[in-house]
Specification:
The chain has 261 residues and is mainly α. The protein has nine helices and no strands.
Length: 261
Amino acid sequence: MSITPTQKSAREWPLLILTIGLVGAVCFPLWQMFPAEDSEIVSPWADPARWGKLLLGPEQIVNYCCFIWAIFIIATRYWEVSRQRVAFGLDLLPSEEGARILQEDAWPLQRKVDQIAAARGPFILSHMIHVALGKFALSRNSQDVAESVKAQAELDHARLATTMSTANYLAWAIPAIGFFGTVRGLAGSMTVAGQGGKMVGEATKHLTVAFDCTLVSLALSLLVMFVLHGLQREEESLVLDCQQYCQEHLVNRIYEPEDRG
């Protein structure tokens, strides 16, 4: 039996609490350590205060929370993919050369697969085999079994995609929060610049805030999207490997006595 989306979503909230704690423990002490702006420093990138404004703005800290939370979710999913691949070495189906599976073998094999899965945890592969053996027990047609394997693979793939909704939202939210900071900075710049006189210098500081938010958010978004696409590729490969395993070790080994005539 596979893990439901509700169970996976319930595991994400402790990761959010851990994320907020880590970001707060790192960012707020750093915020206190950075000195105020020093006008005597010629290069802005040599000014510690400039780095503080670049990395530790309000929008940046929110983005760090989204980034770390997304990374935690993706890391747990990578671990789950690795755990799922353990099922390929559990001897769920006969692997001997020339072994055949009869219709009366379906229920005993199904009970064996269920016992192994119950002891080691839910597996996509074991559930796919369970569904295929149940279909074979009711029908001797290997084509029907192959269709049930294909349908279950499509269902598992859709379920995996659905349970990634939080990570996908965070990957979208990071640049959106950065653009929110950009709009805030531009609005502040225009408001101050409209006063004229010596306030032009203050307006440029607001512009710096605007571009800093965009820079940090785009950098974090690129990293999240990279690991997210890598995870999606691994999950798709897992489902395809499960489908191929069922095809090679179950569908191709089905014995159909009516075809012998």
